[in-house]
Amino acid sequence: MVRLVVYGAFGWCMEILWTASYALVTGVRGDLGGDSGQLKLSREQRLRLLGHTYVWMFPLYGAGGLLFEPIHEAIRGWPWLGRGALWMVLIFVVEYVAGAALCRLTGRCPWDYSYSRYHLHGLIRFDYMPVWFLFGLVLERFHDAVAAM
């Protein structure tokens, strides 16, 4: 249970940092529940570094962290390129399945990537491939730190 909470909190923090950084760099943010896609931000709004997440994400990040622990142990000896590629695919799978399940459960997915030209059903963005590749490798280090607690 402690690990689920640690992974959930880590995921929430990373998502808040990601959404704030994304808004700062791109000048847009998701509409957070509206149907207008992305909102353009003024310079002052960008500098506020307003990040966000959803309550639904806490159990998703927590369970995902627990799910990925045995996979990390199994692939620990792989070259980093293979591990990063596998993490990228697995994160896409989890993101897609969780998004589809949340759509069925609540009528809407908390994230909507349909504004992107590289999306699949609005649930994943293929231009995030490098992000998920690197994030998977970061998760390995985080898993090692959590396991050492």
From TrEMBL:
Keyword Membrane tagged: yes
Keywords recorded for this protein, A-Z: Membrane, Transmembrane, Transmembrane helix
Mode of membrane association: Multi-pass membrane protein
Spans traversing the lipid bilayer: 6-28, 49-68, 80-102, 122-139
Compartment annotation: Membrane
InterPro entries in the cross-refs: CmpB_TMEM229 (IPR010540)
One of the Pfam families matching this protein, by short name: ABC_trans_CmpB
Entries under PANTHER family matching the protein: TRANSMEMBRANE PROTEIN 229 FAMILY MEMBER, TRANSMEMBRANE PROTEIN 229A
Protein name: ABC-transporter type IV
Annotated organism of origin: Nannocystis bainbridge
